[in-house]
């Protein structure tokens, strides 16, 4: 079996035609603002990937989704990074539905039937801010809630049908607790503004979403059990595991695109080609092991800790892949096409996604010595 053949076969089985569409044009085509990648994702039924089959979806598990994201990213890193946010939000909704009032299942069915896309407005991308610190504030009057604030960057900002965002809402005793709100893209008071200025991953539609007194219906608010000290409830634990696994798979896919070019290089020594392939496949094996564990039972703190270990180890392994491939492909490959430089830059962005290695150093050290795993705020 050739490199990436398994992943691309899985992608074709679940989202027919998407890989062929992405392979039919250059990398540059899919990485520019306003590119047709999200349209091709919709056409192939991508929004339904994680929706259970009984609600009209594809019913993919984490292992399958990891393979799909790697395959997509090998053609378009921007599309994989952007759609990871949709899949992360969908997976969280599936988990919510297992303990909800039934409205979540109706929404999941609508995602599958109408190819709805979810954007994520969780607290990401702000230096020094924890992922559990909502960027959106809430004004509560009785049963009504209005949201104000902005999320930047917010992938899929211009293609989303719904924005999922974290918000702090008072509990019965007045204690602020994390909640998740679903905001229709056409809601009065929601505005999308330009934000992303880098040419790297510019196709992910990572602009600013601004909310100004946007009313959210009560049935589109999901309260969680996240405590003030950062211990996670099951919903957020599951969400974190999916986020880390799918985002890591996406950047592995981008690195795999460089490995694929290296393997095809007639003048690249066999030892270098084998090293590059081995480094990439080692990350794939870590991710598949994590996915198998997640599918085998309760997703708790131990699984989340392993997801974080997998992600940080992947950052190191992908760094080795980049060093090997960029040097092996040589200066002519670097200057004759923008692909090598672009993929090298795009893969570095895995380090920017939360929670950063630095912020998690102390919590992981405490976990490894018997303490609970906490996400710092």
**Range of helix content:** 40-55%
What is the total number of structural domains?
Answer: 3
Order of adjacent strands in the largest pleated sheet: 1-4-5-8
| Order of SSEs | HHHHHHHEEEEEEEEHHHHH
Could you name the key traits of this structure?
377 residues, alpha+beta, Butyryl-Coa Dehydrogenase, subunit A, domain 1, Butyryl-CoA Dehydrogenase, subunit A, domain 2, Butyryl-CoA Dehydrogenase, subunit A, domain 3, four-stranded mixed sheet, four-stranded antiparallel sheet, 12 helices, 8 strands, 15% strand, globular, FAD
Explain this structure:
It comes from Streptomyces lucensis JCM 4490. Keywords: FAD, Flavoprotein, Oxidoreductase. This is Oxidoreductase. This protein has 377 residues and is an alpha+beta fold. It has 3 domains: 5-117, Orthogonal Bundle (Butyryl-Coa Dehydrogenase, subunit A, domain 1), CATH 1.10.540.10; 119-223, Butyryl-CoA Dehydrogenase, subunit A, domain 2, CATH 2.40.110; 234-368, Butyryl-CoA Dehydrogenase, subunit A, domain 3. Helices cover 50% and strands 15% of the residues. It contains 12 helices and 8 strands. It has helices at 5-14, 18-23, 27-31, 37-43, 62-75, 77-97, 103-114, 234-263, 270-295, 301-336, 339-347, 357-368, and strands at residues 118-120, 136-141, 144-154, 162-170, 176-184, 190-193, 207-216, 221-223. The strands form 2 sheets. A 4-stranded mixed beta sheet has the order 1-4-5-8, with helices on one face. A 4-stranded antiparallel beta sheet has the order 2-3-7-6, with no helix packed on it. A hairpin with a 5-residue loop joins strand 4 and strand 5. The protein is globular. The N and C termini lie far apart (45 Å). Mean pLDDT is 89; it is low at 124-131.
């Amino acid at each position: 079996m050739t490199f990436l053949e398994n992943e691309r076969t899985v992608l074709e089985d679940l989202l027919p035609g998407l890989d062929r569409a992405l392979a039919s044009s250059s990398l540059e085509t899919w990485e520019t603002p306003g590119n047709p990648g999200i349209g091709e994702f919709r056409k192939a039924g991508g929004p339904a990937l994680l929706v259970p089959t009984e609600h009209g979806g594809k019913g993919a598990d984490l292992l399958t989704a990891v393979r799909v994201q790697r395959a997509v990213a090998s053609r378009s890193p921007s599309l994989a990074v952007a759609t990871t946010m949709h899949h992360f939000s969908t997976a969280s909704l599936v988990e919510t539905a297992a303990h909800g009032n039934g409205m979540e299942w109706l929404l999941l069915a609508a995602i599958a039937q109408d190819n709805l896309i979810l954007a994520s407005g969780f607290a990401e991308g702000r230096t020094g801010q924890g992922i559990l610190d909502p960027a959106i504030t809430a004004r509560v009057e009785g049963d009504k809630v209005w949201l104000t604030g902005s999320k930047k960057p917010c992938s899929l900002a211009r293609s989303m049908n719904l924005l999922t965002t974290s918000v702090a809402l008072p509990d019965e005793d007045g204690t602020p607790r994390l909640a998740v709100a679903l905001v229709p893209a056409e809601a009065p008071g929601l505005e999308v503004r330009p934000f992303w200025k880098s040419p790297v991953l510019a196709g992910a539609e990572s602009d600013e979403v601004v909310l100004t007194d946007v009313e959210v219906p009560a049935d589109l608010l999901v309260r969680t059990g996240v405590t003030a000290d950062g211990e996670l409830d099951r919903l957020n634990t599951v969400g974190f595991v999916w986020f880390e696994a799918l985002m890591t798979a996406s950047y592995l896919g981008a690195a795999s695109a460089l490995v694929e070019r290296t393997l095809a290089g007639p003048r690249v020594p066999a030892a270098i080609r084998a090293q590059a392939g081995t480094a990439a496949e080692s990350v794939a094996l870590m991710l598949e092991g994590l996915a198998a564990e997640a599918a085998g039972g309760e997703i708790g703190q131990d699984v989340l800790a392993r997801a974080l270990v997998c992600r940080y180890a992947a950052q190191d392994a992908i760094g080795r892949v980049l060093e090997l491939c960029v040097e092996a492909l040589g200066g002519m490959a670097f200057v004759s096409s923008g692909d090598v430089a672009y993929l090298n830059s795009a893969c570095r962005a895995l380090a920017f996604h939360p929670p950063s290695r630095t912020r998690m150093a102390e919590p992981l050290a405490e976990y490894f010595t018997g303490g609970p795993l906490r996400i710092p705020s």
